Amino acid sequence: MKAGRPRSFCTDTVLDRAMTVFWRKGYEGASLHDLTEAMGINPPSLYAAFGNKEGLFRAVIERYDARRQELMDRVVSAPDPRSAARLFLEGVADFSADTGGRHPPGCFLVQSGLSCSDADIPQALAEHRAEKERALRGRFERDRKEGLLPEGANPATLASYLVTMANGMCIQASAGATTKQLREIADVALSAWPGMPGK
Amino acid sequence: MKAGRPRSFCTDTVLDRAMTVFWRKGYEGASLHDLTEAMGINPPSLYAAFGNKEGLFRAVIERYDARRQELMDRVVSAPDPRSAARLFLEGVADFSADTGGRHPPGCFLVQSGLSCSDADIPQALAEHRAEKERALRGRFERDRKEGLLPEGANPATLASYLVTMANGMCIQASAGATTKQLREIADVALSAWPGMPGK
DNA sequence: CTAATTCTGTATCGAACGTTACAGATATGG
DNA sequence: CCATATCTGTAACGTTCGATACAGAATTAG
To answer: Of all helices (H) and strands (E), which one includes residue A36?
Structure first.
């Protein structure tokens, strides 16, 4: 075991608290004072653990991704593409509006820094959003090879359609939309899903 | 005519330049230095004309709305609801990705301040986005009374669906999506549009 | 027990923030 | 042509920003 005074805080716990601040105020709106106060630690501890504000932010992104991975796993392993699409959009409708008061409504990857003085932040968020789109596209490409999607369907476009819808739903949620309203929107969106002929 | 030294700048011109800065860097990421430099004026001129940073931002929102009003007018006065939906989404696909280099891709009302230290900013933007949703809903409510939409169609949900899609498309555009890609997404979205029986 | 190591709290750093005081410039009204 | 009014540029205001220097506390290694 390594020497030295042990860390007095749990990394995941302080990341969760920092997430809430970045989420509500945005990357630039979240001051170090806001962050350290919410995390319950002092600046030197923060800098020792995460390097700087951007390092903390990137650690929060990873933590957020880990939280959302469970939904993506369920989506990718759904029995058929239509179920995958439904699980995805209904999952987004649920977590983005029904937060249990633990964080703001919406999606961290959408709200915390779409535009920023430092362009690295929007780019980092965009890459993590694109990762979800790739996961969906990979799933739908396999589906089409297996004949679960019609010949004319474009897996990339379908994946893009779903994440576009999801991101839009998160914006609606951030402005106060309820889970019920989001589910109605998701229902309309899913009625666009290509059906297999004869099914 | 009123006395005093005349203003040396055109209000609309400097608002357009401020819009670009707020759009690219966000409300909090845009410093007064960034703004005055882009606008070509000095701080006292800015404060005399717009009060403060938030006043300037709200003036920019109005200017942005005026720019977008033409599209909304065309959408609301389209011959039938399906055409309105198509005009709306294709219009968004066009202006959000094809900017002519004059401003960042996407939508000002989405990118410039979803999350903010001062919660008034996200709220002001949300209200202006909601205004578009109301215009669409009003249009679709009239359509349903006139029998241009099926009985089961919910005008509020359809309007919400369209702005959700539009906002999502703007996020895709801000991350680099092309007009072509956005139009393909819009095509999928429009295939969800309710058809009149027998048409 | 001592030396070495790592974390913690206090207190503060220079830089950048939004904002404004002030004096000079430029117009109109009489 | 003078008084009044408004705008302009310079220069600076107090505050807050992200980030650290430093000394003391708490641990392990030997």
So the answer is: helix A32-39
Tell me how far apart the terminal alpha carbons of chain A are, to the nearest angstrom. 61
**Could you write out the DSSP letters of every residue in B22-59?**
HHHH-TTTS-HHHHHHHHT--HHHHHHHHSSHHHHHHH
| Element housing A31 (H / E) | none
pLDDT in tens, A134-192: 999 999 999 999 999 999 999 999 999 999 999 999 999 999 999 999 999 999 999 99
Q: Which two tokens stand for residue A36?
A: 């350290």
Give the Cα separation of B173 and B114 in Å (integer).
16
Residues in A 3-32 with any Cβ partner in B closer than 8 A: 23-26, 28-31
Q: Which residues of B touch A129 (CB under 8 A)?
A: 171, 175
pTM above 0.85, yes or no: yes
The nearest alpha carbon in chain A to B105 belongs to A115
Tokens for A28? 């630039």
Contact A190, A89 (CB under 8 A): yes
pLDDT digits (tens, 9 = 90+) for B149-171: 999 999 999 999 999 999 999 99
